[in-house]
Specification:
Elements: E1 2-11, E2 14-19, E3 22-28, H1 31-34, E4 44-51, E5 54-60, E6 66-67, E7 72-73, E8 77-83, H2 91-102, E9 107-113, H3 120-136, E10 139-142, H4 146-156, E11 160-164, H5 171-178, E12 189-190, E13 195-196, E14 203-208, E15 211-215, H6 237-240, H7 260-266, H8 272-286
Parallel strand pairs: 3-5, 8-9, 8-11, 9-10, 11-15
Antiparallel strand pairs: 1-2, 1-4, 1-14, 2-3, 4-5, 6-7, 12-13, 14-15
Helix pairs in contact: 2-8
Domain EngC GTPase: 73-220
Binding site for Zn(2+): 246, 251, 253, 259
Protein name: Small ribosomal subunit biogenesis GTPase RsgA
Amino acid sequence: MALEGQIIKALSGFYYVYSEGKTYQTRARGNFRKRKLTPLVGDDVVFQADNETDGYILEILPRENELVRPPVANIDIAILVFSATEPGFSTNLADRFLVAIEKEDITPIICISKLDIASEAEKAAVEAATEVYQAVGYEVFLANDEVDRTALISLVKDRVAVIAGQSGVGKSTLLNRLNPDLTLSTGEISNALGRGKHTTRHVELLPIGDGFIVDTPGFSSIEWTDLEPEKLQFCFPEIEDRRSGCKFRGCLHENEPACAVKTAVAENEIAVFRYEDYLQILTELKSRKPRY
């Protein structure tokens, strides 16, 4: 008999499907590979199982969205964790993460960790950036603040969230604080590399309050494999809001005259670092080699 459920973990070729209070260990049908289909954590699926350790996924139901890095589907919100120190906060990296989330129509939440051990200069840099992101419309939380952690748990209620960020920024530490029963392993910072050691070995949907968070392997690079240059402006809310004021309909806000976005930057209505990051990503997209 066919059942419906949601994949909550993928590990070593097995997919663990939660359905009606039980978790079933399953494999994907052989024809999935021929059809170039790969089940993802978060997928709603149709499966069959004679018992809880021997099942097969028959069908992947339509996805609302999906991410490549981390490989998850049907995400409602994304908690993007950045540290104030070790590694230091980078607005350029933050903007790249935000673009990756915005292009999938997922609501991003910014969470800052390690502010309690940051230097005064690092704290000032984070505070200045936070003001910009909040003005754009993003919610910003502090990982070490008990009130903010409670607010995060409330945000995840009845939702599926993904938590992502560079290795070493404290994702596992934050998850352990959100749900002490998880006791996820945490890693030391690698001084030689300047980034954290990978401590998460698989993608898994974890219970947080009345919702779920997908813990994901740390990563430090983002690929723009399916984003067209003209679509990038829609991933920057403050640019999208002003594009209608540009003289030319196809304005990319780069070198075009009578550009409302460039005017807003000159008048300090759009942060210079956000516009520069937009231009940098735009250049990368325009110089990207075509895929066949």
